[in-house]
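Pasting as-is:
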Amino acid sequence: MKILITGGTTFVSKFTAEYFVKKGDDVTVINRGSRNQVDGVTLINCDRTNLGDKLKNVYFDVILDITAYTEEHVKTLVESGIEFGDYIFVSSSAVYPETNPQPFSEEQPTGRNSVWGDYGVNKIRAEKYLLKFVPNVYILRPPYFYGKYDNLYREAFVFDCAMSDRPFYIPNNGEMKLQFFNVSDFCRFIDIIIEKHPENHIFNVGNKDSVTVKEWVEICYKAVGKIPEFVSVDKKIPQRDYFSFHDYEYSLDVSKQYELMPDTIPLERGFKEEFEWFKDNLQSVYYRKPFIEYIDKNLI
């Protein structure tokens, strides 16, 4: 297939580009050329909001739009003169207002979520544009991505604590639940959509089962070969000052995904694979936050 991927140099888009290159597909990426490219891709070096004629009358079997955050992002690409078969857009669970009953299902109305703010609102606007103007669009709404090339300071923070034999400062009793989706499963599901062209065009995607914060930390420490010692932090202390996730628990109904793809990678295996990559690529986590510094100054 001829595939166009937006991004292609960090985390989800990088993994996806590598996945389809390895499958033997003809992969083109759009990015600003500021980071190393995946071997085997063709680069269109530009800002996606300033495409000019670079894509005019160029055909792709599939567009994998992984880096669009706004209506402008998708509109600029769709109206660039490009020709394509399927358009797969990575949206977000942030499109569901926290007032909706959980687990969130695809049939529920979208709306502003007070935790995610404009990020979710902009994803909603992008979705609406695509649903109106692109009949062959598929919209994927994931929870938290994880896996190889993760450049966010989530598992990396826990790995850092484990490798330094630090106790882990956990919000309250660690019972808040988190839902994840491995980037490898994400690519597998894209393959299924391309092959089967399901009637449904909006999918929540993710692992069926959530884990508590405590369980997540234990799995990450186990990947390093350690067992965590927990220190509970009072709820009065802002969680995002010392911890990777907002104080917000939600779950997605992913039953439609499971009808098409009835298995996902077990978390223990997935986080172990992420750690094996992380320990040799510490510099690849670009967005380190000063959680450890805050803990050492304010919580010990």
